[in-house]
Design a protein that fits this description.
The chain is mainly alpha-helical. It has two domains: 2-87, Arc Repressor Mutant, subunit A, CATH 1.10.10.10; 90-255, Up-down Bundle (Four Helix Bundle (Hemerythrin (Met), subunit A)). It has helices at 2-12, 18-38, 49-56, 60-73, 91-115, 123-133, 143-160, 164-174, 181-186, 194-213, 217-239, 242-245, and strands spanning 76-78, 84-86, 89-90, 254-255.
Amino acid sequence: MRRARILQTDAASGTGAPQDNDSQITRATIGLRSLLLQGAFRPGQRIAEIPLSSKLGVSRTPLRLAFEKLEYEGLVKALPSSGFAANEFTVNDIWDAIETRGILEGASARLAAERWKHSSQLDPLRALNRAMESIPDITVENMSKYLDLNNAFHRGITDFANNAMLTRVVDQIYLFPFTSPSSRILLHRTLLGSREIRPIAQEHHRAIVDAIEHREGSRAESLAREHTLLTRRNLEEALADRSILDTIPGAKLIRVRNSDQA
């Protein structure tokens, strides 16, 4: 409702057509999210809107709507007086988000096992697995391809569940830093333990598809939940070396306690 009222005001004042506004909102959201994940703003400190709107090349109305969207995602928070600030996450926040992702992906896998109608529906998931396994090592050159394949596999299972509300919630949790399936891949090249984790992840993928094919809903759910723990395992290794963690988008939003803190 608030977004509609703002856009109606813009239209009445002749500031731009709805399509122009939508384009600016998208540009503002993408640009602001990128800056937040790069650590461009100090958590808790008010973000100045005027210079930011100039930097992103958008007016202040689309920028405010972008702030509202990213507040919903959890990347920013509204300040008591006015304006927004970058949010800050504890490690426990990340663990909770990963656990929630596991619950949601587990539910997706279980529903997929219960609802599929033709075995050919599993062919795309099998093809994605084969494509990922055909990549011998994840490098800078092929990382984008691997990320796309991995994301497509995870989203494919959620789509397979045929539950629009569940898909919507999964999409939401994926936006949280270090929670999406991509997070483990982004840490891959800098962490020694990732070489051990990749074969486990591939076996999980094969086993999840097998459980879905045999309509073993409980097994599919359990495997999917266990699979998300690999993301936590990677992040725990990264947290042990802040120089590695700081190279990953979103790391500067994580508040890590020092060993001498209670």
